[in-house]
Design brief:
2 domains, Arc Repressor Mutant, subunit A, mainly alpha, Tetracycline Repressor, domain 2, single chain
Length: 220
């Protein structure tokens, strides 16, 4: 049960403990900065937006932002992590081990595609920069894409160990699921009409594709 135990170790040991007033104020200010960055990127584009623009909208001094984020690239990573609720994912995966994997898959995807729709204008502005800027692309991959992939790999290993899924090539399977999600996002941004009109049906359709291939061979 080593893999299962590793999932438990992913949980934040301080999660659920009381947050001090100072920490709460810090979190609120960070959220305000991220809100301002999202609005500024969506309105002006990533390249044209400046830290000063973001600071003014957040109603903080320019230098205050650097107490939370190193630069605009760091803000972008923070926005993507917040959009995907990356900090909550380890705990979600831990809880999902106790329930039905398919139900978890559908619920998690449904929630996150809803958040993507909310942040679509921001994504239109920042995703091109991820693709064309080598330094940003590497940071985005290491801090966001690879981080999610690692968590999902651990979860999938645990499900296989528990006998809930048949053995598969875990790294490749995880990236195929990620690839489907990214591809759907790109199609939505491009304005694909059938996809946009049936966006709410995607989680169930993806679950059908994925779990038809991952169900145990004995049908359990």
């Amino acid at each position: 049960m080593f893999i299962v135990e590793s999932i438990f170790k992913m949980s934040d040991p301080v999660q659920g403990q009381p947050v001090s007033r100072r920490e709460r104020l810090k979190q609120e200010r960070e959220e305000r900065i991220l809100d301002a960055a999202a609005a500024t990127f969506a309105r002006q584009g990533f390249h044209q937006a400046t830290i000063r623009d973001i600071a003014r909208l957040a109603d903080v001094a320019d230098g205050t932002i650097y107490n939370y984020f190193a630069d605009k690239f760091d803000l972008l990573i923070g926005l993507m992590a917040r959009l995907a609720e990356l900090e909550q994912l380890p705990e979600e995966l831990l809880q999902a081990l106790q329930g039905n994997a398919r139900d978890f898959f559908v619920a998690t995807f449904r929630h996150r595609i809803g958040r993507i729709r909310q942040g679509e204008e921001m994504l239109r502005a920042i995703l091109p920069q991820v693709l064309v800027n080598p330094a940003l692309r590497e940071r985005f991959y290491q801090q966001y894409v690879l981080r999610i992939a690692t968590l999902l790999e651990q979860y999938l290993h645990a499900q296989i160990e528990l006998g809930h899924m048949r053995p598969v090539n875990v790294p490749l399977t995880v990236r195929m699921v990620q690839g489907m999600f990214v591809g759907l996002l790109v199609l939505r941004i491009l304005g694909d009409v059938p996809l946009r009109s049936e966006w709410e049906d995607i989680p169930e359709a993806l679950a059908t594709l994925v779990f038809d291939g991952l169900s145990p061979e004995d049908g359990e």
